[in-house]
Amino acid sequence: MPKACDPRAAGLADLIRDHAARIAVVGQGYVGLPLAIEFARAGFTVAGLDTDPERVAALEEHRSYVGDVASDEIGRLAAEGRYRATSDFSVLEESDVVVICVPTPLRKSKDPDISLVVVAAEQVAARFRPVQLVVLESTTYPGTTEELLLPLFEARGARVGESLFLAFSPERIDPGNRRFPIREIPKVVGGITGPCREMAALLYGQIVHRVIKVSSPKVAELAKLYENVFRNVNIALANEFALMCRRLGVNTREVIEAAATKPFGFLPFYPGPGIGGHCIAVDPFYLSWKMRLNGYEARFIHLADEINRSMPGYVVELVPAALRQGRRCLNGARSVRPVDRRRREHPEGRGAER
Ligand SMILES: NC(=O)c1ccc[n+]([C@@H]2O[C@H](COP(=O)([O-])OP(=O)(O)OC[C@H]3O[C@@H](n4cnc5c(N)ncnc54)[C@H](O)[C@@H]3O)[C@@H](O)[C@H]2O)c1
Fold first, then answer.
1. pLDDT number for residue 345
2. pLDDT per residue over 189-230, tens digit each?
């Protein structure tokens, strides 16, 4: 942590190092709940805040609704006084660290709906007290942390880098993927100031093996978007490749698997009817929206969306023919769970699933 900062900031750094900092995680969904539990497992005292009464009630009864978090673990940490779920925002006033993990969906127009981040940030800023570390983890457009969050805190008298340490650190979990638990996924951290970055890096260093410090929150926000644009565009490429292979009478999978034997410069993606989850299809629009405001059309993003959106209809068109080939009739035909089969055959493959 920063050496030259004031003693109160050094005090916060010590609290983090000693795992004595009180942490509040705002939003107890697929991202916030596993993160809160990870901090609690590391020995911190954690409050999991959520506005959904059903979720809070489930957590109070130690019932997990997220596959990566075991109910027993919630019960154990609650019994040790390390974790509690609440909808009482006054807990923020006692928190040394606040991490915001609320949803960032799209409007019907496909413009970002940032309203939940705004509400959460207002709730946190309204209860700001020196000295606090606040980290935004929700996937969002570049500039959110600096342009949207910072002014809310400054209006409450926060002095960034002194009484407030503000940073962005994207969540990169892959729900259900046991090969990559939270501690194995490097955490990218960008702070408004150098001390903000160092404070946030110190925090995440307590629960993950590797922290990657970047020069600003905007770089961290863009890194997350680039990861998901990369995935979305490559899934679209695999999908378009499948359309082309069909016209040529060639098995797409056989081609991709042959190409994937190249030991460098190629990453296999597989075609499919959907791109899975909600993030991959949504996040790229956070970037294209921001770029449009900057007078630039993000062409790859829109083309990938167009191709990926056409796939469900295309797959439906193929179904009757595939059934006929297998001498089966559409009426009464049952699913053969293709996603499960693909996972079994290609555990490393990236594609239509998350
Ligand atoms: N799910 C993933 O795999 C994944 C992976 C990486 C990043 N992300 C990103 O992380 C963010 C959160 O996603 P998620 O999947 O956890 O969402 P989620 O819908 O599972 O959970 C979000 C939770 O936040 C709560 N909430 C909303 N507003 C609140 C407020 N003001 N105060 C307290 N709680 C509030 C909701 O009730 C909900 O329980 C999104 O930006 C998403 O894009 C998700």
1. 43
2. 999 999 999 999 999 999 999 999 999 999 999 999 999 999
* Nearest alpha carbon to residue 287 among 175, 174, 170: 170
Q: Is residue 297 one of the residues assigned to a domain?
A: yes
The finding on whether 276 has its CB within 6 A of some atom of ligand 1 is no
Using only C-alpha atoms, the chain has a radius of gyration, in whole angstroms, of 23
Cα–Cα dist 96/21, whole Å: 6
Contact 311, 271 (CB under 8 A): yes
Domain count, the chain: 2
Q: Are residues 49 and 160 in the same domain?
A: yes
pTM above 0.85, yes or no: yes
- Please indicate whether residue 120, judged by its CB atom, sits closer than 6 Å to ligand 1: yes
pLDDT at site 5:
58
CA distance linking residue 85 with residue 33, whole number of Å: 9
Residues 209 and 296 in one domain: no
Distance CA 172, CA 160 (A): 26
The pLDDT > 70 percentage for the chain reads 93
Answer yes or no: 5 catalytic.
no
Given ligand 1 and candidates 25, 26, 35, 50, which is best to mutate, with the most ligand atoms within 8 Å of its CB? 50
Question: Which of 66, 86, 102 best tests ligand 1's pocket when mutated (most atoms within 8 Å of CB)?
Answer: 102
* Domain that includes residue 335, residue range: 225-345
Same domain, 51 and 180: yes
Q: Which of 184, 215, 246 is the last residue of a domain?
A: 215
Co-location of 181 and 240 in the same domain: no
Ligand 1 close to Cβ of residue 102 (< 6 A): yes
Give domain status of residue 180, yes or no. Answer: yes
175 and 354 in contact (C-beta within 8 Å)?
Answer: yes
CB 240 near ligand 1, within 6 Å: no
